Amino acid sequence: MSDKCPGCKMPLGKKGFKIRCSGPCSCWFHQKCAEISESDRKLIESKKFKWTCNGCGGPSDREEDPEDEDNSPKLRDVMDKLISIENSNRALLKQLKLQEAKCTKLEKDLIDIRKKHESLKKEIASPYRDKGKADQELLRNNIIINNLPKGVDVLKEAVVKIGNIL
């Protein structure tokens, strides 16, 4: 790096932004001498643009950095991967919606099964209830039969035989 700025002929110093001409002279300039704005300075620092001095290429000849061309295949690779991920996400979302529909159907089926289960429990309980009532009636009948006045034993035996037949 030269010690003096070709624009003002003053020493470059260690402070402040300095820019190197990307033209054939390759000289270093002060930002003010190169007439570089703050926004241009940021672009140049980020290496998105090159700067050439008036002697090499014009007042503010900004070109794209050839390194950006090297990034193009990388950028295409990243874009391809993003597209692939997006397609995978779409496929997964489709599968998720199918599974959600299946779960909804299974929930409805489960509700129907629970209703049928309750209905069957009632049907099963009904004969037991009826048997319980019949048993109670038989006990009542036995009590009534057992409490018949003396001398009606013949009638009692006939009723017991009829009951055994039934």
UniProtKB/TrEMBL annotation:
Q: Which InterPro entries match?
A: Zinc_finger_PHD-type_CS (IPR019786), Znf_FYVE_PHD (IPR011011), Znf_RING/FYVE/PHD (IPR013083)
Q: What is the lineage of its organism?
A: Eukaryota, Metazoa, Ecdysozoa, Arthropoda, Hexapoda
Q: Name the coiled-coil region(s).
A: 89-123
Q: Which UniProt keywords apply?
A: Coiled coil, Metal-binding, Zinc, Zinc-finger
Q: Which GO terms describe its molecular function?
A: zinc ion binding
Q: What is this protein called?
A: PHD-type domain-containing protein
Keyword rRNA-binding included in the entry's annotation: no
Amino-acid biosynthesis as UniProt keyword: no
The domain of life is: Eukaryota
